[in-house]
């Protein structure tokens, strides 16, 4: 079983790698090789020294020969340019998100056409495929049968890739699966260029004793999932059999990951409850129309029936999300937090 | 006003050319140049000698410099590989329908980026963006807010282009419009490789005294529009102002063209009524699963509210469609048809 993760050293890639290197199996079969492909490979990474791991370093589109040098059984395609990048640089988004995904699909098709396995391709799509504007409002509750009308180039690129994967799957070139990720919060580490980045930053930075700016009105409601729930869901969607009754994936590919709906104000209240006034006061509100337009166009309330049928549940509360972050990243948190209220 | 029609010598291209060379205006402004781009240019075409007409002959993707040599104000993008071709030859469809459209959009973006006009791009999409399979049935009545789930590579390619045009429009690179064409019947001329081709053939061939094969069960219902209604609608969608109340185009780009819903059996009964038993008996039924799968996956009943708001109405009856064909193509019809019942 040879498994590839693109964006293998990105945030979700590292989480997924950690899980796979712990279980060392996929659907009960031993993993023989875990290929981590990424443009940037950190100088020291604990996974790099694992005998199962092979690193493919460079622009993915130039490294496909290496990725497909031996048969790929499962391909987690997590690498992408993020939303605000794609809005700022149209060509970058089209190239990184569309052309690279298409080249990957072609390589996978080449493998199955040559008599190899049709790889299981797990694509990380996004809540950003949904967009709302005054002329075309979304319904109050969004599900997989809601018409996606993206309002960002990133969302368009994700939706286009979903369609291509659906066709490659229908034709038997690959066995495609599409996980539409909610905004992941709380992400550890440094801020990224995602428009939604602040939804981690307004928790992560104050917990580290740093100031943070909230670029939207606090009343804005968002759909979140914790890193643990997100990686669990990606893996479940990868492992599930196609067409097996309740857990079936045959009613269209995309699965919207389970979403916890909270307002930004509720997030900040939770921070205050968990970490105290001094920490919560590190957040200042300074709305940025560019960010608010993108994030505000995403739906916040989901019908998660389809995810639930796969056994996937949302985080129970934002307090639980924050507590998970504190448990998983003690090194990134002030030592002297007051006891949680 | 410089107008380009890709697929300018295709069936719809010729109809649209005929209309534009008659009015010689677009939205009240005189047409200075009508560029007809096509891979195949017939040796003798009445429009070729018109002083307004410029012919661009060759593969579109190689001729974009010529198409955009002077500013393009309106681009009707009708050129495409048809449904059965794309199902038989995946690469052909991806190249002709996706890569070429993307190259056109890039050329149009180049024009507006260089300070020229953002061209009005009118894209002929298709009812084939909708597809139904047992695991993902369509609602009984389909409208623009129905989630398209194409069941053919052609439908996927059209849907992907719709998404790209939506993003190019949102970003101001072009002024895009999307007309989702119903199956056009009765097409004159020779059969083509469209899966829906028989929906013209079972009328056109018998009227010319030739046998025809109907490759689907007669109970199958289909959504049709006559050539006249189709070209009228494409032109209306091209000419309408964006965001002008009732005729507005701002609630998403695609407009499903008005559809006449008929069963194949009703079409054949109409043929019998209009042309008599001897003509109708030229049709034999021989279901072809490949054709039935594609055409049977398309919806047949539409909510045409959006088209109606633009002043577009479906054909009143299939008898009217056949009578229009008889009036427009007397040269292609047996001289001794019995008087219509």
Automatic annotation (TrEMBL), chains A, B:
GO molecular function: oxidoreductase activity
InterPro entries hit by this protein: DenD, Epimerase_deHydtase, NAD(P)-bd_dom_sf
Keyword annotations: Carbohydrate metabolism, NADP
Gene3D superfamilies: NAD(P)-binding Rossmann-like Domain, UDP-galactose 4-epimerase, domain 1
Domain NAD-dependent epimerase/dehydratase, residue spans: 3-209
NCBIfam families found in the cross-reference section: ErythonDh
Protein name: NAD-dependent epimerase/dehydratase family protein
Organism from which the protein derives: Streptomyces cyaneochromogenes
Taxonomic lineage from the root: Bacteria, Bacillati, Actinomycetota, Actinomycetes, Kitasatosporales
């Amino acid at each position: 079983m040879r498994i590839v993760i693109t964006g293998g050293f990105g945030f979700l890639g590292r989480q997924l790698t950690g899980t796979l290197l712990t279980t060392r199996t996929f659907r009960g079969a031993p993993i023989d090789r875990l290929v981590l492909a990424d443009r940037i490979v950190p100088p020291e990474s604990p996974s790099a020294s694992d005998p199962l791991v092979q690193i493919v370093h460079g622009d993915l589109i130039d490294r496909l020969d290496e990725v497909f040098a031996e048969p790929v059984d499962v391909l987690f395609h997590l690498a992408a340019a993020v939303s605000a990048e794609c809005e700022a640089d149209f060509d970058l988004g089209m190239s990184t998100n569309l052309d690279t995904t298409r080249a990957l699909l072609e390589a996978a098709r080449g493998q199955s056409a040559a008599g190899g396995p049709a790889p299981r391709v797990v694509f990380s799509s996004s809540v950003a495929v949904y967009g709302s504007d005054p002329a075309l409002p979304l319904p109050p509750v969004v599900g997989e049968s809601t018409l996606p009308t993206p309002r960002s180039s990133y969302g368009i690129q994700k939706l286009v890739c979903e369609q291509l994967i659906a066709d490659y799957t229908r034709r038997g070139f690959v066995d495609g699966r599409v996980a539409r990720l909610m905004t992941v919060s709380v992400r550890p580490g440094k801020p990224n260029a995602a428009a939604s980045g602040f939804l981690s930053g307004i928790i992560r930075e104050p917990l580290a004793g740093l100031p943070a700016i909230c670029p939207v009105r606090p009343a804005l409601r968002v759909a979140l999932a914790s890193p643990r729930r997100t990686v669990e869901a990606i893996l479940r969607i990868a492992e599930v059999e196609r067409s097996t009754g309740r857990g079936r994936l045959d009613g269209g590919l995309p699965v919207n990951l389970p979403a916890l709906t909270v307002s930004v104000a509720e997030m900040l209240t939770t921070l205050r409850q968990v970490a105290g006034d001094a920490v919560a006061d590190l957040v200042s509100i300074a709305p940025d129309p560019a960010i608010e337009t993108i994030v505000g166009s995403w739906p916040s309330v989901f019908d998660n029936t389809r995810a639930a049928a796969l056994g996937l549940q949302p985080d129970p509360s934002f307090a639980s999300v924050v507590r998970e972050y504190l448990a998983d990243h003690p090194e990134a948190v002030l030592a002297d937090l007051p006891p949680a209220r």
